[in-house]
Design brief:
Bound molecules: iron/sulfur cluster
CATH class of the domain at 29-95: Few Secondary Structures
Order of helices and strands: HHEE
Oligomer: single chain
Helix content: 10-25%
Number of strands: 2
Distance between the termini: 20 Å
Length: 107
Amino acid sequence: MSTIDRRKFFQLSAVAAAGYLAIPSREAQADDLPHLTADDPMGAAMKYTDDASSVDPATRNNPAADQDCANCALIQGNDGDEWRPCQIFPGKTVNAAGWCSVWAPKA
Ligand code: SF4
């Protein structure tokens, strides 16, 4: 793991852990959470967008096609919901059709 990858991993782990501790009932509160925006500081840092189709696949770290929040391993909440919690952005919801640079394939 490179230094940058390791740093990013620890940053994201800290964010995810903070969200887990701060929001014990994340899914029950999903409808009440604000939507993440691309200009949110954390969203901007992770290149979040509400529209995955606006992202040039060539710029992605992971070359897998058809990436969006709905098929990301880090999404939470219920399939079919437009806005869902995400492990990376505690306290906010992300658009199921969105995307960020942390996207990971489901196992
Ligand atoms: Fe969407 Fe996955 Fe990024 Fe969360 S980590 S915003 S679910 S792509």
